[in-house]
């Protein structure tokens, strides 16, 4: 009887097991994002040019590759920003649960779609549908990482209890800047795909503006 009761006892995970699970979550995310950002460059390919024609044809081939290079640069910056944001958020997130893992997988879903969206944009940047697909993927990625932070920080669910509430609200506001701008660019794509891309370049300025506005507000102590 004693053996049976012992076998039915619930085994609670140790702090080491919890930390190991948390590290696996972060390392897995880093690995997926590293693969996604590497796959972006695969689309940058030049056709083989005979040696006798290389001097004459290479400049034209490079010029034809310009839209894909631009798409690569934008996508590299986007994935880099999201990796940096994920790294920053998980410096404050101290615990995890099943829902956080689920939200993180949704975030990675849109990250791994980025090479496809970038390839589509680079090849068909003159078509509204290609620009819209790309903008929606970036927006969805931004909303998903914002959801991770909101879920983890809401009522200090998975973050340190001493973390400043104003800081949490500031991070929530900043997390919405990129996805909202890319979402707002969708209607412009029907008018001009180039106009839609110009809107994307407003993202750094908008982020800086949001940060400055948040910093001007008085700090409330709780």
How would you sum up this structure, described in words?
This protein has 222 residues and is mainly α. Helix content is 77%, strand content 0%. The protein has 12 helices and no strands. Helix 4 runs antiparallel to helix 6, helix 5 runs antiparallel to helix 7 and helix 6 packs antiparallel against helix 7. The longest helix is centred in the middle third of the chain and has 27 residues. The N and C termini lie far apart (52 Å). The N terminus is likely disordered.
What characteristics describe this protein?
222 residues; mainly alpha; 12 helices; disordered N terminus
List the helices and strands and how they pair.
Layout: H1 2-7, H2 15-39, H3 51-64, H4 66-92, H5 98-112, H6 114-123, H7 128-153, H8 165-175, H9 177-184, H10 186-191, H11 193-200, H12 203-216
Helix pairs in contact: 2-4, 2-5, 4-6, 4-7, 5-7, 6-7, 7-8, 7-9, 9-12
Number of strands: 0
- Dominant shape: globular
Helix content: over 70%
Rg over alpha carbons: 22 Å
Strand content: under 5%
User: Class by helix and strand content?
Assistant: mainly alpha
Number of helices: 12
Low-confidence stretches: 1-11, 13-17
Overall pLDDT level: 82
Main sheet specs: none
Q: What distance lies between the first and last C-alpha atoms, to the nearest angstrom?
A: 52 Å
- The H/E string reads HHHHHHHHHHHH
Brief overview:
The protein has 222 residues and is an all-alpha fold. The chain contains twelve helices and no strands.
């Amino acid at each position: 009887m004693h053996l049976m009761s012992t076998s039915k006892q619930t085994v609670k995970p140790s702090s080491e097991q919890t930390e190991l699970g948390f590290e696996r979550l972060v390392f897995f995310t880093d690995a997926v994002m590293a693969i996604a950002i590497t796959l972006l460059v695969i689309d940058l390919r030049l056709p083989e040019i005979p040696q006798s024609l290389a001097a004459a044809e290479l400049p034209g081939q490079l010029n034809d590759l310009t839209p894909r290079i631009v798409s690569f640069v934008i996508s590299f910056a986007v994935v880099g920003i999201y990796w940096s944001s994920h790294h920053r958020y998980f410096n404050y997130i101290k615990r995890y649960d099943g829902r956080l893992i689920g939200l993180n997988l949704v975030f990675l879903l849109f990250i791994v779609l980025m090479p496809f969206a970038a390839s589509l944009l680079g090849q068909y940047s003159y078509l509204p549908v290609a620009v819209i697909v790309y903008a929606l993927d970036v927006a969805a990625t931004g909303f998903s990482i914002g959801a991770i932070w909101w879920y983890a920080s809401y009522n200090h669910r998975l973050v340190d209890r001493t973390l400043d509430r104003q800081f949490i609200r500031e991070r929530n506001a900043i997390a919405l800047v990129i996805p909202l701008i890319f979402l707002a660019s969708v209607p412009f794509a029907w008018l001009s795909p180039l106009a839609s891309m110009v809107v994307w370049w407003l993202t750094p300025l908008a982020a800086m503006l949001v940060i400055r506005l948040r910093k001007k507000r008085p700090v409330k102590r709780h």
